[in-house]
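ESCALATION

Customer reports they have been waiting on this structure for their group meeting. Please prioritize. Original submission:
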Amino acid sequence: MTVSDERQGFVPPPYPYDRLDELLKIAAALEGGAVDLSIGTPIDPAPPAVVAALSTSGSERGYPPSIGTAALRESIVSWISRRFAVDLDPAIHTAVCVGTKEFVGTLPQWLKLRTPWRDVVLYPAVAYPTYEMGAILAGCRPVPVPLTADGRLDLAAIDQSDIDRALALWVNSPGNPTGACDDLGHVAAWGRRHGVPVFSDECYVEFTWDGPGRTILEHGVAGVVAVHSLSKRSNLAGARVGFYAGDPELVGYLREVRKHVGMMVPGPTQAAAVVALDDDDHVEAQRQRYRGRLERLADVLGTWAGIDIGLPAGGFYLWFDTAAVGGAWAFAERLAAEGGAVVSPGEFYGPDSISSVRVAVVQPDERIGLLARRLSRRG
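Update from on-call: job pushed to the front of the queue and completed.
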């Protein structure tokens, strides 16, 4: 390496979804335009009462509390109690974040300040890419944890030297992109046994199809933090509001350090989040929408491609192998050309999934119908 290379510093890699621009152009050329199934961006409307709350709270005038208003923290613990029968204290067990992506992406740097002799972030080998990128941005070492055949973390495969240096272990259940549901009790016990904090990303928990939704908090709060988002459950991705809850020492540390960098959810968004968390009916309606779309797209794409596409245990993504039909990029290119739809190749989620494809069922029924008609003419 030359001196100039040594001094170059960090160069951000291409953002994964930017690589789909050419496929979007191909798909957009079809009459009716592209059907974008690549990113999990909610497209259905948020409840009217939630939207109204954004403009009527009067909270835009002052700085909002970075830990969350008392009303929002009360709504968070009420929802957790109602949903999972877990009782928490809003004063010590929870706080809000500016959407969960920023929490995932910045967590390693805050933890490394707390325990500078540790520098490893453990995360699922097939996963949302921000777990890895958060570690890289903090100057830490991202270590992917292999998955078992049923999509769970293979904790026995983690090298002891990595355990000894681990800042945190991420678990994602239901998982993005696989939809698999992990044994959160087993993961929590592993973390406590090894002294590794466990952060459980549960933003798809309301869309659990195999049995009831689960939280790691059902197994106690010691050494664990659950991370939740209103983006998916309430179609509020643009509002940027999430929260974290669990171990009071970990939550307390993160609440304090995040104050110093102005990590504040806007006041009107916090007011809207109270309304959203207090209402379960709109979530059930969204569950039915996603379930119907999963079933329809699995049938449409499977019939067209001549492969079997199963439904996930949770989440709103189809995740399937395309090795038998030419591989992920070939499948994606053909689908863009013939169906006008754009999907995500599995390599975006790690090298262990290079032949898989992820399909986000976020488009409305009429757009999915358009895709079905296009592909039926090609079948």
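Sent to customer with the following note: The mean pLDDT is 94.
Escalation resolved.
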